[in-house]
Design goal:
Elements (H helix, E strand, L loop, with lengths): L33 H6 L1 E6 L4 E3 L7 E7 L2 E6 L5 E7 L4 E2 L10 E4 L3 E7 H10 L1 H27 L2 H16 L6 E3 L4 H8 L3 H13 L3 E5 L2 E4 L2 H8 L2
Antiparallel strand pairs: 1-8, 2-7, 3-6, 3-8, 4-5, 4-7, 9-11, 10-11
Length: about 240
């Protein structure tokens, strides 16, 4: 894991001109406050397949993903894995309410993230309540997503799960009907997220393609060709 970081100055992280800032928690800050944010920020780069954080490690750092994709997951004692989410630029990673991280985060692709020391970020929130309000809003969204995931795993069919997954990713990425959407995770990752087997995920995607709901140009991209029918297939 690459743990090197730089502070926000010169050729380092430029908070004021960051394309991700409007959709990240730091978007709550006015331009005059960005200097204080920049003073506590750094950059972390992690190669695909390597971990950004590991469950059980001291929760010393908080990250905002700026490039690439992460998967967050928990391991059971027997080694089985449950992926609980895929994170994209703008998402916050690693904010824990205890002393340790409660999940692991692994890079699906090469990633870049802004790194903040937890204590420094919490101190900044005390000075800028709008930052804390944005964080609480994000926490509420994560709770809603967790509840939706419980419904998906507990009640939905395989077809409904795959359709819900594709629609949710498209919404988060701002992808419209007919636009190619990157699908950088492998079929095993999708299966572990949806509580299905790899074979079921592959078969369901193939059936959706044959039904004209999606196109599959290659293993790592998908195009939604019939948004209305895919929405109906999701069961929502």
């Amino acid at each position: 894991m690459d743990r090197q970081q730089t502070n926000c100055c010169g050729a380092r992280v430029d908070c004021a001109h960051c394309d991700i800032r409007p959709i990240a928690i730091c978007g709550a800050l006015q331009p005059m406050a960005l200097g204080k944010l920049a003073a506590i920020a750094g950059t972390r780069r992690v190669d695909a397949g390597a971990q950004l954080i590991q469950e059980g490690e001291p929760a010393e750092d908080v990250f905002t993903l700026t490039e690439g994709m992460l998967k967050i997951y928990k391991l059971m004692p027997d080694g089985r894995r449950q992926i609980t989410g895929f994170l994209i630029p703008g998402d916050l990673v690693g904010l824990a309410y205890g002393d340790s991280y409660i999940y692991s985060a692994e890079a699906v692709t090469d990633i870049v993230a802004c790194r903040f020391r937890r204590g420094s970020l919490l101190a900044l929130m005390a000075d800028y309540p709008e930052l804390e309000h944005r964080l609480l809003s994000r926490a509420g969204n994560e709770l809603a997503a967790a509840q939706a995931q419980m419904l998906l795993l507990g009640r939905k069919t395989a077809r409904e799960r795959v359709a819900t997954f594709l629609l949710g990713l498209a919404e988060r990425r701002g992808i419209d009907r007919g636009e190619p959407m990157p699908l950088p995770m492998n079929r095993s990752d999708i299966a572990d997220f949806l509580g299905l087997t790899i074979e079921t995920v592959s078969r369901t995607l193939t059936l959706m393609r044959k039904a004209g709901l999606i196109n599959l140009p290659d293993k790592h991209s998908v195009t939604i060709t019939d948004m209305a029918h895919l929405q109906a297939a999701s069961g929502d």
